[in-house]
Here is the input.
Amino acid sequence: MGASKAPAQQDPFDTGAGGILRQPKAVWATAGASVVAFMGIGLVDPILPSIASGLDATASQVSLLFTSYFLITAIAMLVTGFVSSRIGGKKTLLLGLALVVVFAGLSGTSTSVDELVGFRAGWGLGNALFVSTALAVIVGAAAGGSAAAILLYESALGLGMACGPLLGALLGDASWRYPFFGTAFLMAVGFLCITVFLKEQPKPARKTSLLDPIRALGHGGLASAAVSAFFYNYTFFTVLAFTPFVLDMTPYKSGAVFFAWGVLLAVFSVIVAPRMQERFGSLKVLGGSLVLLAADVLVLGYGNHSAAIVCTILSGAFIGVNNTVYTELALGVSDAPRPVASAGYNFVRWFAAAAAPYFAPKIEEWSDIHMPFVVAAVTAVAGALVVVVRRKALTHEAEELEPRHATEDSVTVFAN
Here is the structure.
């Protein structure tokens, strides 16, 4: 699926004399808040059935918690670079954190599913502003170079994705409202830490316009990566948002399943994927992983309960690999500056993250419980076919424009 191989990968744990653990307080404050921010994505997984019961809502109504969150996230991709390039990295982080604190807290007070869906939308805007800037801040302040910074960020992402369902299960066993209050509290702590430990970041030399990400999609390679990732994200978020209803387990058991899923996602994203790319090439790894993910979700949909648990956990491995490879494609395939290319790419693909939680339960209502996973398998294969058909555009060796300052890397985070 592309003759070219990925360039030699640096060992992610070889971070030089400084070492990954020897970081300034500002880096740890930002990384810690990033963990909590990523926890918010999977936080509601183990408590979706509890929320549906507590608010007398259907599965399709509760799944809108993901739809509103990621729909706003997608639109915010056009806004975050615009905002951070004008008010600076620290203020953007604090604005995002403040919004999360407010809307996560309000989510816990919801008296109807419509209120909760609306509050999750505000939460999504805050999370977009924070997370889209966090990597840039970590890169700019970390000791040990960019390799240490990116490893630290990826570790925060994996830890957050793994611990979100666990926190949701532990707090949600008492009440579905408690995970939202817990997140608001942790993000408030992050707000205070960043206020104290992080210095203001220099603004980039060039301000980002709202239309720059759209213009970047005129590049064939970037557009191909975005379309392929769109199909993949539909599969990804069918697993994340619809599987809890299929498993139909207690919050503790569901949280344990998605914790194991998150651990595999982290390990394969940070450790396994770079080594596979070095050996086989990025496009072969991506195409193969998408096909394996398609097979996995088919078994998830048609297997017994034990098979569904195993396949849910196993999907984390394929998702981790895909996330890493798509990140590199989005950032390196075009000649646009990295944050602009990433914003355009993510603007497209996050719409699938909004669509899947809405359509999966609807498809079940129209057909049966197996069909949502058939559709998810088809979209994963469609993503692989785009990689095959557009492999020449995706292996284009563009001379990437170097950002003037680390803050211009801010949007790369959402490539994950």
In short: The chain has one domain: 25-415. The CA atoms of residues 330 and 342 lie 6 Å apart. The chain is about 75% helix and 0% strand.
